[in-house]
């Protein structure tokens, strides 16, 4: 029997998740709220994000998580669906080149978590593809 080891390093967990995400096909992604930001719809996504959420210390009670892919150039805002609200978090999972992902005007590195309390302004450089995880609070 093999024993699985868990890493509490968000960067390592982001890398593990990124390795899986880059192998997904276009059929595993769908437009999020009609934008060019795409939401992962692969059935295995829930199990794959647990390590990153734990390593990042994100509270999970009353929260919902989404995995997104965004191709640049892109400048826009990310808002929850009508079923969710703020506060939330965004964690950059990966980017092909550096720097490529700005969140609310701040350059963000893979594995880095930022709290959001309103619509998040996202900027992705031209010719870039980034993956990120966002959590929102479920409305009661």
Question: Can you give a write-up of this model?
Answer:
With 140 residues, this protein is of the alpha+beta class. It has a single domain, classed as Jelly Rolls (Sandwich). Helix content is 16%, strand content 40%. The chain has helices spanning 10-21, 45-55, and strands at 29-31, 38-40, 63-71, 74-78, 84-95, 101-103, 106-107, 113-116, 120-124, 129-138. The strands form 2 sheets. It has a 6-stranded antiparallel beta sheet with strand order 1-2-3-10-5-8. The protein has a 4-stranded antiparallel beta sheet with strand order 4-9-6-7, with no helix packed on it. A hairpin with a 2-residue loop joins strand 6 and strand 7 (106-107). The longest helix has 12 residues, at 10-21.
Which series of helices and strands comes N to C?
HEEHEEEEEEEE
State the CATH architecture.
Answer: Sandwich
CATH uppermost class: Mainly Beta
What's the total count of β strands? 10
**How many separate domains?**
1
Secondary structure: helix percent: 10-25%
CATH superfamily: Jelly Rolls
Report on the biggest sheet.
Answer: 6 strands, antiparallel
Number of helices: 2
Instruction: Identify the quaternary structure here.
Output: single chain
Distance between the termini: 43 Å
Query: In what range is the share of β-strand residues?
Result: 35-45%
In the sheet with the most strands, the strands line up as 1-2-3-10-5-8
Shape designation: globular
User: Gyration radius, to the nearest Å?
Assistant: 14 Å
- Class based on secondary structure composition and strand pairing: alpha+beta
CATH topology value = Jelly Rolls
Low-confidence stretches: none
Mean pLDDT: 93
